[in-house]
Batch of 2 targets.
Target 1
Amino acid sequence: MAEPILRVRDLSTYFFADEGVVRAVDGASFDLYAGRTLGIVGESGCGKSVTARSILRIVERPGRIVGGEILLRRPSGQVVDLVGLPSDGQQMRQIRGGEIGLVFQEPMSSLSAFHTVGVQLIEAIRLHSGLSKKAARDRAIELLALVGIPRPAQRVDAYSFELSGGLRQRVMVALALAAEPHVLIADEPTTALDVTTQAQILELIARLQRERDLAVILITHDMGVIAEMADDVVVMYLGKEVEKGPVDAIFHAPRHPYTQSLLRSIPSVLAEPRARLATISGSIPHPLARPAGCPFHPRCPDAMPGRCDVDTPVEVTIGDNHVTACHLYPEPVA
Amino acid sequence: MSGLAVEGGIVEAPAAENRVAVASQRQLIWWRFRKHKLAMVSAVIVALFYFVALFADTLACTEPFDTQATRGYVPPQPIHWFDASGHFHPQVSALKGKRDPRTFKLSYAPDASEPRDVVLFGHGYPYHLFGVIPMDWHLFAVSDGRPQDSLFLLGTDQLGRDVYSRLVIATRTSLTIGLVGVSLSLILGVLLGGISGLYGGVADLVIQRVIEILRSIPTIPLWMGLAAAVPASWSPGRVYFAITIIISLIGWTELARVVRGRFLALRHEDFITAAELAGASRMRIIFRHMVPSFLSHIIAAVSLALPAMIISETTLSFLGLGLRPPAISWGVLLQDAQNLQTLGLAPWLLVVALPVIVVILAFNFLGDGLRDAADPYG
Amino acid sequence: MTTPVLEVQGLRKHFPIKQGLLGRVAGHVRAVDDVSFSIAHGETLSLVGESGCGKTTTSRCILRAITPTSGRILFRDEKGDAIDVATLDRKGLKPLRRRMQMIFQDPFSSLNPRMTIAEIIGEPLLVQGMSDARERQARVSELLRLVQLPSAYLNRFPHAFSGGQRQRIGIARALALNPSLIVADEPVSALDVSVQAQIVNLMLDLQDQLGLTYLFVAHDLSVVKHVSHRVAVMYAGRIVETAPTTRLFTAPRHPYTEALLSAVPVPDPRRRAQRIVLQGDVADPSNPPPGCHFHPRCEYATEQCRIETPELTEIEPGHEVRCLRAAELSLRGVASQ
C-alpha cells in the first residue's frame, strides 16, 4: 500500500485539572491512508474527540499534548511532526483547514449566525488561496453545489439559521473542503441529525472521498455508522486503544473483551422484538480513578486477577493489520 | 454539569467525590465562589465597610457636627507613633495657629511642646450605639478628651469639622441608603418580574413597555425633576426616604428583567414539567422549584444593583439635589470639594472619593463572583 | 385485544404563528394533525419519527402538559370507564395525574438540582396526599430498589450522578404513583451505548414485573425494535403507518417507513446494502405539501398523491397505512437475522 498520509505514534494528551491529571489520550497510534476511512469509536471519555483535536492542535487548556508524534505528509512530500509545531504558528494555521479539514458535530454552533454562509466560505477559501473576492465567491457556489445544496447561487447568501440541519451540515462539509484538504476529520458529524439526513450526509462524505481520494477520520459512538463507512477501525476505552483493525475483522472477529461486549450490547433493527440487550457489567470509571493495569479489567468478563489489575497490556498483532492490547493475547498470532 | 460523575462512579471514585455528592447546591456555589480570589477579597472589603457603617460612631472620634471656624482647612495631621525616647507612645501635637501678617493666610504648625496622648477606647462625644445604647467611648481618642483640638487624621473642612469622623459617619449613611433602596427595588422587581415571566400575555407586555420607557429616560434629568419635587421644608430624615424611593424606582427595572428571564427559562425546564405532571399546585411550583433556582441570581443581581444605588445617592447629593447639609453622606462631603479654589486650599477633602471608588469596585467584583458561582454557564 | 388503556382519537394541536407588532395570527403550525391510536394494557407502543413529526407534542398532549386543540384522549380506569383527558380542567386533572407519568429525555434537566433524590422521587407522593414522611421514605426506598440504585443515595443531589443513574431516578419517580400509563420521551437517546442497554433492559424488566404500559417516543429505530410490541410511524404531524413490530420492520407498507428503515445504519459491514437516500428536507409543519405530506420526497408518488389526502386505513388486521398506493406497492424492509 502507498505511504500513509498521516501517522500518529503514541499520542498522549493529558488534562491538568485542579482535581488531578486526566489522561484523556494515553498512547494512541494509527495510520491513515488516502482514499480510506479510519473510524475511531468509543463511549464517553474514551478520548476520541481529544485525539481529533490533538491532531489539529486545538486542544483547550488545561489540556496539552505530552508525548508522541503526529506525522503529516505534506503535498510537497515533506513529512512534518505536528506535535513539534507551535499551535498558533503559521505552518499549523496553513495545515488547519488547508490540508486537514474538520467537520464538527453541531452545525448550528459551528457556523456564525451573523454572517452568511457565503461570507464564511469565502473567508475560508481566501485564507488558504490567493483568489480574489469574485473568484472566491464563484468557488463558494461551486462548493455548495458539490455538497448537494440545491440552488447554490441563491443559498450562498443565506444565513445559517435559514437552513435546515441537514443543509447546515452540508455547509460544514463544504467549509471543511474549501481549501482542498487531503484529510477530512469528521467528529460525530451526524449525531445531531435525523436518520434520513444522516444517510444523506454519510453518502455525501463517501462520494467526496471517492471523487477526491480523501483520507477520512470518522469519529463516532455509533457502531452502525462505523460498519457503514469505515475501512479500518480503532476502538478506544478511557484514552487507550484497545483494538484496531480492518472493519470486517473488528465486527466479525473481535478479540478484545470490550469490543466484544460493546458489539453485543448495541441495539439493532435485525434483533428479535423485545429482546434483552447484553450489558457490560459495572460502568465507565471516573477519569480520575483509573483502574490500575488494564483500564477495562473491573468490567471484563475474562479478567485474570494478578495480571490484568497489575500490568498494562501492550499492543500485539493478532491478525492481518489486526492489533489488540489484552493480556489474553500476550503473544502475536501469526 | 459537574463533569465529575460517571456511571456508577460514586463507589469507585476518590474520597473527595463523596463530599461533593451530598453537597447541596448552596454549598457547591460557595465552593465555586471561594475559588474566585478577587471576589473573596471584595467580599471581605464589603464586609469591612458595613462593619464601619454599623459602628460608625465608635470609629469616629470628633463630633461630626462640631464646627470650629478657627480650625478651618487644617491639613491632615499624622500620629507620631514613637516618642523622643523611642518607646511606642502614640501622640499628636496640639496645633497653634499663626496668621501671616502680610497675606493674612492662616497656617498651623504642630506645637511639639504640647503633645497629647492618643489612647485606644478613650472617651469622646456621646452617642447611641445602634441608635439604642448610650455610649461615649470611641475606638481611639485623645487623653484630654478634646480631640477637636489635636486629632485631625484627615484634616478639617472649611468649618473646622474633622474630615475623618465625617467620612466615617457618611459611610454609614451612604451604605444604608443603598440597602434600603435595593430592598425596595427587590420587592418591586421580583413582584413585577415574576408576574411578567409567569403569566406572560398582556401583563408581560405592559410591564415590559413600562420598563423600557423608564430605562430610556435619561437618569440625571429624571432625578433632578423628582428631587426638585421634594419640598425643601422636609427634614433631612424625610428627604432621606424620599431620595431612597426615587433611586429605587429606577433600579427595580434591572432586577425585574433578571427575574422575568429566569422564570421564562425555568418554565420550560423538564423538572418543572415533571412537578406539574405529578399534580403540584402553582404555588408549590413557584416557591419550591422556581424561586430556589434563581435565588442565587437575585443575590448576584442585588450585589450589582447596590453600587448603582450608592452612586445614585452620591451623585444626587453631589449635585445638591439629594441629601443636603446638615445630613452627612459621601455625596454631601464631596460637595465641599466641588470647586478648584477649595481644592487648591484643601486637597485632602478629595479623600472622600476613595472609599466610594473602593466600595463600588468591591461590590462589582463581588457581584461578578457571585454571578459566576451561581451560574457558571451564564 | 384487551380493553385499551389509552385511546387517542383525532388529536390535533395547532400552534398559532404570530406576526407583527400586535401579534396577529398569520398561520398555524400543525404540529399534530389528526392522530389516532390505542394502547392495550401491558403493551408498548412506540411513536417513531424524525424532528418536527409531532411525536413529542403528541406525548405532551396526552399527558396534558399542553392543551390539545381538538380531539379525544380517552383514558380507561380499572372498571373500564373512559375519561376524556383532553377537556378536563386543572382540578379534574389532578386525580388523573396518578395514572399517567413521564420519563424525560434529558437526564440533566429532568431532576431539580436543588432537591435530594429522596425529595425528587417523593414529590409525586407528597403532592398526591401521602403526608406521612416515614411512609414516603419507605416507598422511595422500595422504588430505588426497583431501579437498582443503592438506598444510600437517598440524600445525595442529582449532580453526583451520571446520566444513566439519573435516568433510573427519573424512572423511579415515574413509578412512584403506580401509573397505568408511562410515556417515555426518548429515554435513552442521551445515554452511552452500554448505559442505554442497561436502561432498556430495566424498562423491559419493570414492564414484566409490574405490568406497565408504555408509550415510547423515539427516533432510534434500533432501540424501538427492542422495546416495542407495536410501532406507529409519524411524519409531519400525521401517523403514516401502524403495525406490530416485526411486521413493520420486515414488511413496511408506507414508502416513508421503507426509507426510514433503509437509512438506519446496520452494525455489520457485510450488509452495506443499497440504501434509499431521501432527497430534500423533512416537511415543514407550518406549510406542509398539499395532499399527501410525503409526496415531494416519495419515489412512488403519482399525480394523485399531490391532490388527494390519504386516510389511515387498515390493510391487514392490526396494520394501518396512510398511502393511496399501499395496496399495489411492494416495499423492502430489513431482513431478519
Target 2
Amino acid sequence: MMRLRTIIFGMLLGFASCIMASQTRQPGTITGRVLDETTDQGLEGVNIVVMGTVMGTASGPDGAFRIRGISPGNYTIQFTMIGYKATIDTVPVHAGEITRLAIALEPTVLESPQLVVTGEKRSVRVENSPVSIGTIRDSEIRLRMPTTINEILPYHSGVQMIGGQINIRGSSGYTRGAGSRVLVLVDGFPVLASDNDGIYWNAIPMQNIRRVEILKGAGSALYGSNALGGVVNVITTPISEQPHTTIRGQGGYYSVPSNPSWRWREQPLITGMWSVSHERQLDSLGVRAGLSYRSSPGYSQNGWYRRWNVTGKFHLTPSENTEWNGRLYLVRDIHGVVTQWRNAHRPFNVPLESVGDYLTNHHLQVALSYSDVVSSRMAHTWRTIYYRKAFQNYQHDNNDYSVSHTFSTEWQTDYQATSSHLVTAGIEVTGDRIIADLWGNHTSYDVAGYLQDEWSISALTRLVAGLRADLLQIDARPVLMQVNPKIGLNHNLTDSWTVRASVGRGFRSPSISERFTRTRQYIFQVAPNPDLQPEVSWSGEIGTHYESSALTLDLALFSSRYRNFIDPLQDPATGTISFQNITNANIRGTEIALEWKVPYLPVRQVIGYTYLHPRDLTQDTVLAYRHEHSVVSTTNILVSRKLLCSVEYQYRSKIRRVQVYPTNPATGSDKRVPVHLWSLHGSYQISNHLTLRFSAENLFQYYYVMIERNMGAPRHLQLGLDYLY
Amino acid sequence: MKPYIFVLILFVVVAVSCERGLQPAPGFQGTITFPSDNSGKVPWPDSLEGAVVAFADVSSIYLPSITFPQVIQNLLGYTDPLDTSRIEQPYFLQAHPGRNYIAGVIATTVPISKILGQPLDSLAIHPEYFQVLGLYGNPDELTPFRFISVDDEEITPGIDIRCDFQYTLDF
C-alpha cells in the first residue's frame, strides 16, 4: 500500500512541476464561423485542427469557433465534418491579435466520418488511423429516438448487444452485466462502475451528443483495463456561443402480440420522454443545464422503468491558452427486474415469485478537465472524475445493496517533438472504494503511465507505437503489473486508398463482483473467488479503406487470442457458481463496411457485414453468445428537402451456443432463431425551430431471444417533437 | 408512384410479414396444488430443497408392465423450480405433438441448482435425489397416472396435479 501511495505522491508532484513550467506568452487567436456553402447556415460540430500543432477545436451550434493561445506565425487550418468536403486554409497569426475567418464547406454525397479522437487520444482523420474506428453521428442518434445509447450501437457493423452487454467483434459474451470487456467513456472520462465493472447505459447522457466513436480492438495501450475488446467514446457537443434552448418530447407504445397468451397486460404499453436543455455564454464562461425524464411500462412484465436525469456542463477560458471544462450528471433510476420469462407459454411474464421485484439506482458523475496550450508544440490536459454509483435491490429473495466511489485523475501531455513525431504521454491514478453487502467492502488502486509516438515516416505513411503500464492493487493483496504495448501502421496508397495494420495487447482486471460476490440469484448460489487472475489478449488487424465521391469501402481482417478468459462456472458437486479463469479463446473474423449513393436517386446506403469465428480453445467448441454472421444495413431516403426517411435492417445468425438453457430437441423448448429486425425512422422539418420525428423499431414484430428465456423487444412505435431556438 | 399507393403497398407488406420468428409452442398446462396447514401455508419439509414438474415420453413403453425407473429414463424435461410458498400455481411444459406423456411433481433432496443443467440420463442414476409428490391422474382410477396427449400447435389445458408430501408410488 505504501509503495503505491509513494508513486501517487510522486506523480502529483510531477503534475505540479509541469504546471509551473508554463511560461508567459504573447499568443494570438483565430476565430470565425463555418457555414454550409449551399444554405449559408452555421454548421455545428465541425472539427478544426491547426496542422502541425497540438491545437484544435470544434464549432458550436451556430458554426462559431475560437482557438486561443497560438504562437505567431503562418498556420494551415483543416476543417472537416461528416457530409462535407474537407477544407484547408492558411492564415497568419500575429502576437496579441485576433485573426477572423469565414469558411464555407461544400456538402458531399456520402457522409463517411472524418475525424476521430478515441484511437490516439487526439484528433486523427479516420482513414489515417491504424485501427478500425467507427462513428455514429448525432443526426443518426436523434433519428432513431433511443432511450439509451446501447439501443443504437447494434446498427453499427462489428457491434452486437447481447442482453444489454456490448460485444465488439465477438470480445464479450453474456455474464449478466459483470465485467465488461469494452470500456465506455464520456468525453474521454471512463464511466464504468467500479464494483462490477459493468456498463450502466442509463448513466450515459442522451442529450447533446455530438457523436459516438467505437474503437474496435484492444485499447489497453492507452486506456488500461476493460479496453480488452474495444472502446466506446460518447462525445458531447461544445457549448454554443449563442443562447440555445432545446425542448424534446416523444411518446410511443409497444405493440402487443396477437396471441392472447403472450399478452401480459391489457392496458396499452405507453412510453414517454421529455427533456429540456439550455446553454449560453456568460463572458468567458459557457454553461449548459438540462433535465429529462423517461418512463415506460416495458414490453414485458417487470420491464418498467422511471428515470430522471440532471445534466450540467461548463466551459471556462480564463486566458488565451487555458480552458476548463466541467460536467455533472445525476441519474435516479427505478426499474423492475427481469431475470427470465415465466415459461414459453407466457414469454412476456416473469416467474410468479419475481413479480414486483425492482431496484433503485443512483449515479453521480462530476468531471473536470483543464487544458493548457503551452505553445503550438506542447499542450497539457488534466482530467479528473468522481463517479458514485449506488444500487439497492428490492427483490423477493434478496435486498442486496452496493455503493461504489471511483476517483480518477489523469495528466496528458501532447508534444510535437519534431515535424514528424508527435508524442503523447500521460499518467493516470484511479482509486475505488466499495461498500456492499453483496461483495463486501473493498479498496482498489490503479496507477498507470502511458507513452505514444505518432511518427509520420513520410507524407504517406504514419506509424503509431505506444505502451501503457498499470500497477493494480485490491485491498492488501500483492501489487499486480500489466504492460500493454501496441503498434500500428497506416499507408496511403493513393489519395483515396489507404491500408493499415496494427497489433496490440489488452487486459482486464477481474471486477470486485467477479472476485467477491456471495449471493443467491434465482436458484443459483454464487460464491466468491478472490484468486481470479486478469484476462489478457493479443489482437491484430489488417485493413484497407477506399473512398471516392460516390463510394466508401472499408475491409478488415482481425484476430484476437485471449488467455485466462473469465467466465462463470458451475461446480457440479454443489451446484454453486463462481467466476473462474477457465478459457483460452481465439476469435477471428472479417468486417466489411460499404457506403454508397444510388445513382440518380436521393438514396444513400450503408451496409456492414461481420463474420466471426469464435473458438473456445479449452473445450474445443464455439464460444457462447456470439452471432457468427451479422449484417446491418441503413438506407437513407431524402424524400424531400424537409422529409428524411431511413430504413434499417439487422440480421444476426442464430447463436450456436448458450450456457444455461440449451435447446432441448426432445421437447423443442428453448429454441433459438436467427434475428431479422427491420426498423423505419424519419424526420420532418416543420420549421427552422420545429422537427417532427417518427420511429418504428422491429417494424414486423419479429419474435426472438438472444439470451435464453428473455424475449427481444416487439414493435415500438414512437412520435417525437424537437423544438430548438 | 402516387403516395397513397406507396402507403398501401407498405401496409400490405407489413401486414403479411408480421409476427414471424419464435411462435407459441405446443405443450400442456395446468395447476399445481401443494397441501396447506391450518395457517394456510405450505408445510414444506426440511428434507426437500425444491420441486419441479417433470414429464416423460411413455409412447414406447409397454404399459401393462411400466415401472417408475422406466419413466425416469424417459424423462424429457421439467419446469423451472416451483414456488414452494404458494399453495396453487400454474405451470406449462412444451412438448411435441403426437406422443403420450405422463407428468408429475418431483421434489429434490439436493439443491435444485445442482440438478438443473445436468443431462437428464445422468439424473436417472441418482434416484436418491428425488421424491415424487404427485402424478397427473385421478386417484380413483386403477392406474396411478393418466396419459397426456398434445395436438398440433395446441396447448392441452387442465393437466392439474395435486401434491402430497406422503405420496407413495405404486408402480
